[in-house]
Design brief:
The chain is 52% helix and 13% strand. The chain is α/β, with parallel strands linked by helices and 473 residues long. It folds into three domains: 2-140, no CATH class; 146-242, Rossmann fold; 273-468, no CATH class. The chain starts with a helix and ends in a 5-residue tail after the last helix.
Length: 473
């Protein structure tokens, strides 16, 4: 029965994913037909460019929605996935737009993608609302419920029950089990006490139980936890355990298998696989498209740099990236030759707090370099770093070796747990006008909250931040 229910859930999930792809295709066909009718032209003629673009776009659309966690179960969270839908469809539209610039299919312009985006987003949103309302009505009538049992008593179990009742959707807690001494000292009000942990096999065999939540204290009740999990495994019943036993700063990331042994992976701020896949897809599509579009600007800037001062066009410097791996960061050169050698003599003029080095009127900066820095044009070659996977469009800024060696607090080094980026909360929040500790705090806030929607917001806010030129020097 458990396997059959899992099969039904997988089939429903695949049907939902297929319907979202169908919505995208339907919106595209509808918009293209309207465009062709308004222009008085014939519909699209098949071509390799069109087929390649459509196949890549469907993959990008699916990965964006999956990366935004649109397809995860919302039974435990209990909320309607409005933000996930907006994030997924928005990032999907960005990815499809970038692919349009690459493939350049006939008559598919960027304005078409904008219309496809809002039509698809609205359709998916309304369809999910209908589905959500249908599920709520079923659960109000006592159907589509998952019957749960709690193993544990006391304040921790009571708090967990409160969380289930406030946030989870479609759960019915039938009771709790714990050793009699523990149950007497701390019962859970409002639900039935069913017996000791040793009686769990009899309880599970005689009642409808879909899931068991084990909320016993990890250190003092390891034996009881092992017994409860074993009894549930014998009868094929799923077990869930809150991960707060390791503290609020650590979360369970995944469970892997090494040589037949399950290994629990813990992380302070884990990112989902789908988010990372969707983020990488967008990084490649957007960076490749921008490099093609900005090629004339690159040539013009290169000529101006050569005319302005002697030296190479690009400045390459070792930076510290994800997990403290070093990589060569590429920028347009904005300083005189031997600028790094001159830095030691300028340390006394450093205006920045903390580990970084900043001088508003740095004497090493060339005339053209000041303009390139104020408009952040010198950062554009980092699109090459994004394309090859050393950086991302959004992430903590990669720091020079000199700055990293001056880190004094361990919590600051957690910024290296994410791939570095061209822009992040620091860039849109004021850049060099912010203090070092505030900069580090913003990086950690991003790492703890990262999702496709946040990435989209940061990219959007980067445009006015660049135009204002606040803290750019």
């Amino acid at each position: 029965m458990v396997a059959l229910k899992a099969l039904y859930r997988q089939l429903a999930l695949r049907a939902l994913q297929a319907s979202d792809l169908a919505v995208f295709c339907g919106a595209l066909a509808f918009v293209l037909r309207l465009e062709a009718g308004a222009a008085g032209t014939q519909p699209l003629t098949p071509s390799w460019a069109l087929f390649g673009w459509l196949a890549a776009s469907l993959v990008a659309w699916h990965l964006a929605l999956a990366g935004a966690r649109v397809y995860r179960s919302h039974r435990l969270s209990g909320g309607f996935p409005a933000l996930e839908i907006l994030s997924g469809t928005s990032m999907g539209a960005i990815g499809v737009g970038a692919l349009t610039l690459l493939f350049q299919p006939e008559s598919v312009r960027l304005n078409v993608i904008v219309h496809v985006w809002w039509i698809s987003a609205l359709t998916i949103f309304l369809a999910r609302m209908v589905l959500w309302g249908f599920l709520v009505s079923l659960r109000n009538r006592g159907r589509n419920l998952r019957f749960a049992l709690i193993v544990g008593a006391g304040p921790r179990a009571t708090d967990f029950l409160r969380r289930i009742r406030e946030t989870a959707a479609g759960y019915h807690v039938i009771g709790y089990v714990d050793d009699p001494a523990q149950a007497d000292s701390g019962s859970i009000p409002g639900i039935e006490y069913l017996g000791a942990v040793d009686t769990l096999p009899r309880i599970l065999s005689g009642r409808v139980v879909d899931e068991v939540f084990v909320v016993l204290p990890m250190w003092s009740s390891y034996g009881s936890i092992a017994k409860a999990i074993h009894h549930c495994a014998e009868q094929g019943i799923s077990v869930r355990m809150p991960s707060d036993v390791f503290g609020d700063a650590i979360r369970v990331h995944s469970v892997d298998v090494i040589g037949g042994m399950p290994v629990l992976s813990l992380a302070s701020s884990p990112a989902s696989t789908w988010y990372l896949v969707g983020k990488r897809l967008i990084d490649v599509a957007v960076s490749a498209s921008l490099l093609l579009l900005l090629a004339p600007l690159f040539v013009a800037v290169a000529i101006l740099i050569k005319l302005d001062s002697p030296g190479p066009v690009f400045f390459v410097q070792k930076r510290v990236g994800m997990n403290k791996r070093q990589f060569p960061l590429v920028k347009f050169r904005t300083m005189q030759l031997n600028s790094e050698a001159m830095q030691a003599r300028l340390e006394r003029l450093n205006e920045a707090s903390g580990a970084v080095f900043k001088i508003r009127d740095d004497p090493r900066v060339t005339r053209l370099g000041r303009h390139l820095r104020s408009w952040s044009i010198d950062e554009l070659p980092q699109l090459f770093n994004v394309l090859v996977g050393q950086m991302s469009l959004v992430g903590p800024r990669p720091l020079p070796l000199r700055d990293v060696e001056r880190f004094e607090l361990d919590w600051q080094r957690r910024r290296f747990s994410a791939r570095p980026g061209i822009t992040c909360l620091w860039q849109v929040g004021g850049r060099s006008s912010l203090g070092f500790d505030e900069w580090m705090a913003l990086d950690l806030r991003y790492i703890d909250s990262r999702c496709l929607l946040l990435d989209l917001k940061i990219l959007w806010r980067t445009i006015p931040a660049v135009l204002r030129k606040t803290g750019a020097y």
